[in-house]
């Protein structure tokens, strides 16, 4: 089974950045039928309701970017934001939904899913299903080629040394070739494609953002736990932290591996609940389900040959040099998706956008890091 010609054309236009604004909203909120999906059950427990913060809403913002100062309304309009949730110290400061989106709308994660999947590696280590973050990936998944000597830590940091081109709009890029493999709905197709990639440097020798490696996270976690990633997420986190809705996640084929690097659909408030879980150091009812220090390690940059890499365990580190962002990190997805976490300021900020192009270098917008800094400063 594979995608129909119509669905394939729609998928291609999405990655090329060729959808009209209303069409983009429908794509981000609907079941496109591009890939099979699996449910992430919220279970039957009570929904965690956030109390309103005493701030009574967001104070006026001064977003300083490119020598100009913008406010909240500039940001929402210019950056095509459909949903915004701000939590401070576990309480709700703001929840804004527009462009037809409601608090109950399931929104496409894009690469936010990478950070959620990587967090499950920490859960599996804490439970003993995965021995160590420095285990070779081949301990869990029979990968060949350049991955024979790559560790799980190197996969999470995307410094495997494997050659990769992530350009979404280049039909010859590795990312687009992998998308073609996904479109075949072929069990094992992703692992086969990744195994055939050559090494550009020894493991750990270079950083390259690599969506294919984020898919290996599902392969490792599913092999180590004997559970599909969706079921593991549901049983360990989603059904235990008061989520409001079931979520969905793409899989490679019916009954096959979860596509852990993208394709999750969840409500905005549930993305915020997940962010609060991470901010709380992975604690549920006072019990830590992540290894000690995991949050800070996962959200920290590292160095290769003296170069600072603004990336942790599939979490981005803001590149804006502003002291109020110190220690913060964020899940990011194309078209402007964010779960921003600032432990020092007790902040979680979820942004759901429908921007014009996948990458920020090809569109005009207000800098998101400057927006997060403005929120932190306004609520200090």
UniProtKB/TrEMBL annotation:
Q: Name one Pfam family in it.
A: Beta-lactamase
Recorded hits in InterPro entries, A to Z, give: Beta-lactam-related, Beta-lactam/transpept-like, Diverse_Enzym_Activities
Show where the Beta-lactamase-related domain sits.
82-360
Descriptive protein name:
Beta-lactamase-related domain-containing protein
Originating organism: Tistrella mobilis
| Highest classification ranks of the organism | Bacteria, Pseudomonadati, Pseudomonadota, Alphaproteobacteria, Geminicoccales
